[in-house]
Amino acid sequence: MCVSIDVPIGTFQTWSRDSKSVGRQISRIAAPVISAPLLSIIIPVLNEAAGIVSQLEALQALRNAGAILILVDGGSSDNTKELARPLVDQLIDSSRGRAVQMNTGAQASKSEVLLFLHADTRLPPAADEHIREAIASGAPWGRFDIRIDAAHPLLRIVERMMNWRSRLTGIATGDQAIFVRRDIFEETGGYPELPLMEDIVFTTRLKQIAPPACLRPRVITSGRRWEKHGAARTIFLMWRLRTEFYFGADPAKLAARYGYTHQEV
Questions:
Q1: Interval 22-81: pLDDT, tens
Q2: What does the pLDDT read at residue 64?
Q3: Higher pLDDT, 152 or 84
Q4: Which pLDDT score, from 0 to 100, does residue 248 have?
Q5: What own/partner pairs with CB < 8 Å and gap ≥ 24 does 6-10 have?
Q6: Which of 142, 156, 198, 252 makes an SS bond possible with 194, Cβ 3.0 to 4.6 Å?
Q7: Is 0.90 topped by the overall pTM?
Q8: Treating both helix axes as pointing N-terminal to C-terminal, what angle do 154-169 and 231-246 enclose, rounded to 10 degrees?
Q9: What local confidence, expressed as pLDDT, does residue 258 receive?
């Protein structure tokens, strides 16, 4: 199960870079206060030149409010890095693989709260304040509800099922913009370096520490895979892969069947 939190926006205006202010703002967090920005947004990328500028431009308001944007590139062969460089605070080269890249970004960050954001997922307005209030309310980690950016009516049902399942199980997917306190992230050992299902394993570990804050504002994630392969076919495949993973199937083989190639994270 998870903790549903309806966040009253407006309690805080910015992510303060002043250590005394940070200490006041997070006084209810059972973690040490450090003189550093409170939130880092970690984005793993690989060959995302087509959409990376619009993605990062949408995050500039959070950056201006004090959040740190960390882009972790897994060896792009296009001009992703050149396009992204002016729009982020840190650009890091990493070995390829979403889990590896997210762990690399977390290690480079000095923030107290880490938000892991896929390159094709958009945050809701005031996402930083939603996260701050959830953490201040005592939740060590959490995620957002999700909306799939595609018109197929079947995907409206899929969204509801994903949000409902996450609330029921306390497990989240990477598309839901998982956020976590740094000390809890380190306690769990970070993301397991798997080619698929790393988010399932990671949040399963997290929920053993505490249930997540399930925030109702929705992130919007790309529907490109659903549109490319067909909604019904993709739903069936994802359910089947998750079931096989639960019964011990090799994640590398599951990733290949899912359609991941060396060009994807």
A1: 333 333 345 444 445 689 999 999 999 999 999 999 999 999 999 999 999 999 999 999
A2: 95
A3: 84
A4: 73
A5: 6/216, 7/129, 7/130, 7/133, 7/134, 7/215, 7/217, 8/133, 9/126, 9/129, 9/130, 10/129
A6: 198
A7: no
A8: 20
A9: 65
Q: Whole-angstrom Cα distance, residue 2 to residue 5?
A: 9
User: What's the rounded Cα separation, in Å, for the pair 134 and 141?
Assistant: 8
Q: Are 184 and 209 in contact (CB under 8 A)?
A: yes
Instruction: Give exposure, 232-255, as e/b (b: 16+ Cβ within 10 Å).
Output: eebbebbeebeebbeeebebeebb
Which helix (H) or strand (E) covers residue 134, if one does?
helix 127-136
Distance of alpha carbon 101 from alpha carbon 117, whole angstroms:
12
CA 127 to CA 142: how far, in whole Å? 12
